[in-house]
Amino acid sequence: MQRSPNDLSQLQATMRAIEVACSSIQMMVNRAEAEATILSLCQSPQPYQACQYILENSQMPNARFQAATAIRDAAIRDYCLCYVMQRASSPEGYVQAKVSAAAAQLMKRGWLEFSAAEKETFLSEVKQATLGIHGADVQFIGIKLMESLVSEFSLSTSTAMGLPAEFHDQCQKSMELEYLKTFYCWARDAASSVTNKILDSDSPVPETKVCTAALRLMLQILNWDFRYSKNGLESAKGKKNVFSAQVGNDNNLSRRSECTIVQPGPVWHDVLISSGHIGWLLSFYGALRQKFSCEGFWLDCPLAVSARKLIVQFCSLKGNIFHSDIGQMQENHLLQLLSGIMQWINPPDEVSKAIESGKSESEMLDGCRALLSIATVTTPVVFDQLLKSISPFGTLTLLSALMCEVLKVLMVRNAEEETWSWVARDLLLDTWTALLVSIESGGETGLLPAVGRNAASNVFSLIVESELKAASASAFSDDMASDYFQASASAMDERLSSYALIGRASIDITIPLLTNLFNERVARLHQGRGITDPTVTLEELYSMLLIIGHVLADEGEGETPLVPKAIQTQHVASGESEKHPVVVLSSSILNFAKQSLDSEMRASIFSPRLMEAITWFLARWSSTYLMPSEETGESNSGSCYDNNHMVQSSVSSKAFLIFGEHNQGKSVLDLVVHIATTTLVSYPGEKDLQALTCYHLLHALVRRRNVCVHLVGLDSWRRLANAFANERLLFTLYSAHQRSLAQTLVVSASGIKNPEASNQYVRDLMCHMTNYLMELSSKNDLKIVAHQPDVILLVSCLLERLRGAARATEPRMQKAIYEMGSTVMNSILIFLEVYKHEFAVVYLLLKFVVDWVDGQIIYLEAQETAGVVNFCMRLLQLYSSHNIGKISLSISSSLLSEAKTEKYKDLRALLQLLANLCSKDLVDFSSDSPETPGTNISQVVYFGLCIVIPLISLDLLKYPKLCHDFFSLLSHLLEVYPEMVAQLNDEAFSHVLGTLDFGLHHQDMEVVDMCLRALKALASYHYKETTVGKVGLGTRAAGSKDQNGQMSEGIFGRFLRTLLHLVLFEDYSTDLVSAAADALLPLILCEQSLYQRLGNELIERQVNPAFKSRLANALQCLTSSNQLSFTLDRMNYQRFRKNLINFLVEVRGFLRTIKILVLFPVLFVCKSVLQTSRIQDPGRILFEKIYPKQVK
């Protein structure tokens, strides 16, 4: 566009005035007048042409900088803020939302540079809008602008801007400490200013939208991650505050609950607590509720939903926002809320009836969420007392009544899809869990009041009734989506765990109840045997066994579970141990399970599904109650919190010793083994049942050595071992189950006191399998016989068994397992040759070798080690020579994917094998003296890696596990044996460097970290070697001439460039900065001249003198501040880490975003689009034009 002479002269005059003002500020002359001149440019209505002219023609950098700043301010003021305010009544809300978001992003970008006055100028316009002076539409827009700002400044919802994490942290801190509370007050005032008009109007009014937006903003602010305003008043000295931060178990409610704890700190006390604001909100919602009581749909309107959500969130307030008055203030706060919430959920029967009649359930569910929030921030005693001051019953009684009513609805409707009663049940279960889990984990059973135990027993009784009814209804159901049709205890484990907590709260009632119900079902089975269909009763028994198993015992999660504290401390056994409720119930189930050993009973009663439940129960119960060690019992009982409960715990522990080693424990153990054998032999093809037996029940028996001592002496166990070793019956098991069974049988040998006898036990167990493999491999017609289906199956099963035995390696049995593996070494190589096209068999061969070497290598003597290493190298060479798993591009895509998967599994096994060999240099339990010559493990592993690397493609490295294993091994080798790199051939060396470069740019932070550690090791090794006159990595580091005679850069120069570019310009986690610093320091020391040249080039590319100066100073400080020296000791690494962090904070932001300053051509386009577009989303276009990099 051509400018007229008058326009041009005016622009030139403006530029000269700005240049004079900038010079005056620099020379400290007429500063006030100069600042006024610059401010006039920023505040002028349309500064874009003048700013464009200054940016294109001024030779003064400061003048161009002020012009860019003026454009930024005008963009926020003229285009974003003015656009949404002027079009407040537009129906295109999504456009306004997008422009508001753009304004928030522009504000955030300049937030740390804006002065307080500049922020106040923008926010004052927002405040004026929220006051409602310009009407409800503008008021609504002002609130939405604040919502966009809060969203943008929150770390969890902020936009990716390509700026350092420190920038976002500082913005969040500034918002939280300076403006968040103010925004809340503006939203509160906006909501309260329109309530009267809403209540007085009989028709919809615009103010409803304003009030809804204000309530949503208040809720959004309360959901803020408060980090900087929590510190304040401490609890009164010497007094326990039941509402302190330690009360409640937030981490235990992560699965189903929707509860978010709010801890804004004492500075929010006046706004949230003492202002009467909560009372106003409750009164407002109550008035609306009464006004629209005849309109059921009103409960789901945005205003009602927002108000209830805010009330529920107030129930989650916690911490030092409440004064140190031993929790009295928070108790009053919760009581006030509970008083308003009561009408949503009480009386439960009437509420439920109204919902079933068509009323919306949303209010009732929000009431349940409020109870969950209250339970999360308080204790059971205080929770119950809250309601007693305003009603004849406590909160626990109300909770129980609600839960019972919901369960009754579930039983009546028997709905298979999720309904309101399902959601309510889960919310109320979480509430019970929040109250009881601290009692269960901390041994504070006495904190649950008597009325609470009665309420819990009532709830548990109805829970059992509802579960039994659901089980009965599902007995003949063909719906595979039904909970009860799934033959897995884990499908209901979360809900059952909550049931268990409720049941344990009153075991004197609940466990006898379970015993009676169980015995009734068993009696019904016997009475109707051969007469009536037992399906319903079997399904009920299945459900009962799951519930009982959860009540009596915990899972343990890898550790030996103790008897739950609630069971120990609540019941004092009267007289004989046999009369303890837990003993009575356990004995009933054991006696019932024993009947499964009878073939006729098994055929008529014990279906595979019922046996799954019995097996699961026995595994869980045995881990806790079968032959408990005396040390465990004493430790468990001693953890109780007062003398009375310690006595009760001691009595209960003695009662449980009835299943101990010196009582009925051995006979019960024998029974369990018989049942396990029966499930493996008498239920062929029942894969799930046999998996429970092999992986859970049998593993539970060998988990403790004191049980193994008795186990190996049982005839039933010896018969099981003999059948495994010598009979073909157990070969019908799934091959992976055979591996588990082999591992269990070998582990049981730890119970044999004589080490030689332990080894002989293992030899006897495995010798027939090794002999068969040796005989098969020596057959002349092996290549013909081996590919018969039955032979492939047999070989696979034998390999799985050998693998299971190898995984059970312990020092006591190590000798026998070594002999087992060494016996079949040659057979393994023969099978690898014969089965080279059978992927499944090859994988089993490799996995056996991996597990065997893993268990054996650290125990082997020098000669044995040499033999094992030689075998592994032959295996690697054979695998590579046949190029097993070679992928052909001519095959179909599905076959190609399958081939890649098979190759990935093989290569991962080979990498694990090499990693296991490395462990010999780290841990060595052999009896060899240090002078004994041994195998050079580093040389062997590098040689193996050179064999494996050519088989690994970049496509295969997309498999996360293979990628992790590969870089883990590579990093380990380069860190521990860096000197071996110089000995690699050119092809292998090129592969290593290429994969390192690939790993540095990987998405997985752990892979990048491993590559950085490898680079650190290589560079530090070379630097240390060269400083003492050695060659280090020699020509590998110095570079070489290419075919044209040009000198190529050495490896450290290449990686120095790569790493500098990574830390300065690329996206990465800030957690990697320390690892990057550790790698960068030795690289800089190895290539000091290159580092200086790269730094100078970077400085010269900066156009802005201010940025150029900052960058030069930062580069100087990076290598000189903090007393940094030219050594690679621990202290120097720490100093350089600090230097790099400061360096990145100083320069990374402007280096990555310097190109974004030139915005003015974009703004003209955006202005035209916003004013004329009728087709696309103008807000989207505005964002794309201003931030094209982010959009890309």
Describe this structure in words.
- Belongs to the exportin family.
- This is Exportin-4.
- It is a single chain.
- By secondary structure, this protein is mainly alpha-helical.
- Helix content is 69%, strand content 0%.
- It contains 54 helices and no strands.
- The C terminus is likely disordered.
Going by helix content, strand content and strand pairing, the class is mainly alpha
Helix share bin: 55-70%
**Secondary structure tally, helices:** 54
How many DSSP-defined strands?
0
**Per DSSP, what share of the residues sits in E-state strands of 2 or more residues?**
under 5%
Based on Cα principal axes, name the global outline.
Answer: flat
Head-to-tail CA distance between termini: 30 Å
**How confident is the prediction overall: mean pLDDT?**
83
- Overall radius of gyration: 37 Å
Question: For the report, how would you describe the main beta sheet?
Answer: none
InterPro entries: ARM-like, ARM-type_fold, XPO1_C_dom, XPO4/7-like
Main location: cytoplasm
Organism: Dillenia turbinata
Domain Exportin-1 C-terminal: 949-1019
Task: Give the topology.
Blueprint: H1 5-27, H2 31-43, H3 48-57, H4 61-86, H5 93-109, H6 116-130, H7 136-153, H8 165-200, H9 206-222, H10 269-272, H11 277-291, H12 302-314, H13 328-345, H14 348-356, H15 362-376, H16 380-388, H17 395-413, H18 420-442, H19 450-474, H20 493-504, H21 507-527, H22 535-552, H23 565-570, H24 581-594, H25 599-604, H26 608-625, H27 630-637, H28 643-656, H29 665-681, H30 687-702, H31 705-711, H32 715-726, H33 735-747, H34 755-777, H35 782-785, H36 789-807, H37 814-823, H38 825-834, H39 839-856, H40 862-881, H41 893-922, H42 937-948, H43 960-976, H44 986-1000, H45 1005-1027, H46 1035-1038, H47 1051-1065, H48 1073-1086, H49 1088-1100, H50 1105-1120, H51 1130-1153, H52 1160-1172, H53 1178-1186, H54 1188-1191
Family: Belongs to the exportin family.
Domain Exportin-1 C-terminal: 949-1019
Pfam families: CRM1_C
